[in-house]
Amino acid sequence: MGPKKTFEDIISETTIDDIEEPDATKYIHLLKDKIVIDQFPLKIKIIITSEFKTPIAFDRIESHYSNPAKVVLAQNNLSKFYDDLIDKFKAWVDQFQERGSGFDFNGIKSVQVKLYKYEYQRASSYIPLQFKSKNIINIQNKNDNKCFLWSILAYLYPVVKNKQRVTNYKEYEDEISMRGIEYPVAKEDIPKVEKQNNLIINVFALKDQTNKQTLDPIYVSNKESEKCYVVDLLYIENNGNAHYCLIKDLDSFMCDNNGHKQFTCRNCIQGFQREETLEKHKKYVMITNLVEP
User: Fold this and answer.
1) In angstroms, rounded to a whole number, what is the distance separating the alpha carbons of residues 267 and 236?
2) 7-117 under CATH 3.30.1600, yes or no
3) pLDDT, average across residues 261-265
4) What average pLDDT does range 112-117 have in this prediction?
5) pLDDT tens by residue, 188-211
6) Residue 129 and residue 122: Cα distance in Å, rounded?
């Protein structure tokens, strides 16, 4: 059994019942404009109250569809969340109608939306990966909480053999200033590490711990400088524990199943075949962010 929700866990709870649209897909698309979300990551729970009626006697009943609370890591994951909601809700409606009750779907009456806080665990000691990749260095720090530090040092001071061993990076430990930062390193402390060490650090997580194609950004640096080293980290979780790994080359890591390298936007993980196309995309994203209220 998971931890019980407290009032402090709930960001907001809203019931929406003023959308006049009989088509379920269109209804949920209209619903998106009604749900205000201004912080990420979070968990979203949706409860949909629908009306069913018999085609002859016009008897009416209400039934409720409820999805488990889903983690949404960033703004650009919302479209996928709503697409999945549409697919699962329509499958639920089909299943309801196939039970032989004689009731047909007559529309959505209301939707209850619950938003919950989602807190990342502080990443600490070694967790094995659930997939294989030559582009990940997973430091085996079984006796300390410094996976964040060792992963950065693995990027700055690469070795040829036994890249996963902490002993390869011990001699460089003082090269990174961690002044005022506690281990294990919390996400909110990353900007301080960047500032103290002239680094650009980006952190990504997997929605499915077994599938690299489910990568999502959870911290993308707002620093821009050609003089800074850019370090990409992978954040993984398992049974309440968390761990940072080094992504040696994000573009190679995100290559397709045929091994074709892509140029990856760190803000949205969209891949492009040409670097010039990526640069145009980044400029568009920058302009879009500037004009948004």
Assistant:
1) 19
2) no
3) 84
4) 91
5) 899 999 999 999 999 999 888 778
6) 17
Task: Indicate the pairing of strand 42-53 with strand 70-72.
Answer: antiparallel
Q: How far apart are CA 207 and CA 187, in angstroms?
A: 17
Distances (CA, A) of 174 to 153, 170, 255: 10, 9, 35
- Please state, in angstroms and rounded to a whole number, the distance separating the CA atoms of residues 203 and 43: 19
Q: How many CA atoms lie within 13 A of 168 on its CB side?
A: 21
Count helices and strands (H / E) in the chain. 6, 12
Residue pLDDT, tens place only, 121-170:
655 678 888 888 889 999 999 888 899 999 999 999 999 999 999 999 99
Q: In whole numbers, what is the pLDDT of the chain averaged over residues?
A: 85
How confident is the model at residue 285, as a pLDDT? 60
- The residues pairing with 199 across neighbouring beta strands, listed in sequence order, are 229
- Chain centroid to CA 56: 47
3-state secondary structure string, 177-244? CCCCCCCCCCHHHHHHHHHHHCEEEEEEEECCCCCHHHEEEEECCCCCCCCCEEEEEEEEEECCEEEE
CA distances for 171 relative to 90, 142, 148, 166, angstroms: 58, 18, 16, 10
Kindly report the pTM of this predicted structure.
Answer: 0.62
Where do the H-state alpha helices sit in the chain? 24-32, 78-97, 147-156, 190-197, 250-253, 275-291
Distance between CA atoms of residues 233 and 250, nearest Å: 9
Tokens of 180: 């005022």
Domain boundaries, the chain: 7-117, 136-261
Dmax (CA) for the chain in angstroms is 81
**DSSP bridge partners of 42:** 72, 117
How far is the CA of 65 from the CAs of 21, 31, 61, 71, in angstroms? 18, 15, 13, 18
